[in-house]
Amino acid sequence: MVELPVAAIDRIIRKSGAKRVSEGAAVALAEVLEERAITIANEAAKLAEHAGRRTVRDVDVRLAAKRI
């Protein structure tokens, strides 16, 4: 089950130029984005820990996204 709101994903797809979006397409993109977000979050947590912090900061997330 996807935790990201399907309506928000629908809006993202429409912003990219789609005229119509099926619910299945929105759910599929939400699943892909959630998997990618979990991977980035895991890497960001490792970076924060390596820096001696318990708090994940925005710089950790941005660096993790670039590294992955």
Brief descriptors of the model:
Histone, subunit A, mainly alpha, 3 helices
What does this structure look like?
By secondary structure, this protein is mainly alpha-helical. It has a single domain (about 5-65), classed as Histone, subunit A (Orthogonal Bundle). About 70% of the residues lie in helices and about 0% in strands. The chain has three helices and no strands. The radius of gyration is 15 Å and the shape is elongated.
In short:
The chain is mainly α. Helix content is 71%, strand content 0%.
Which helices and strands appear, and what pairs or packs with what?
Blueprint: H1 6-15, H2 23-50, H3 58-67
How many helix segments? 3
Could you give me the name of the CATH homologous superfamily?
Histone, subunit A
Fraction in beta strands: under 5%
Low-confidence stretches: none
Largest sheet: none
In helices, the fraction of residues equals: over 70%
What is the CATH architecture annotation?
Answer: Orthogonal Bundle
* Anisotropy-based shape: elongated
Domain count, please report it. 1
CATH fold category name: Histone, subunit A
Distance between the termini: 24 Å
**Mean of all residue-level pLDDT scores:** 97
What is the helix/strand order?
A: HHH
Radius of gyration: 15 Å
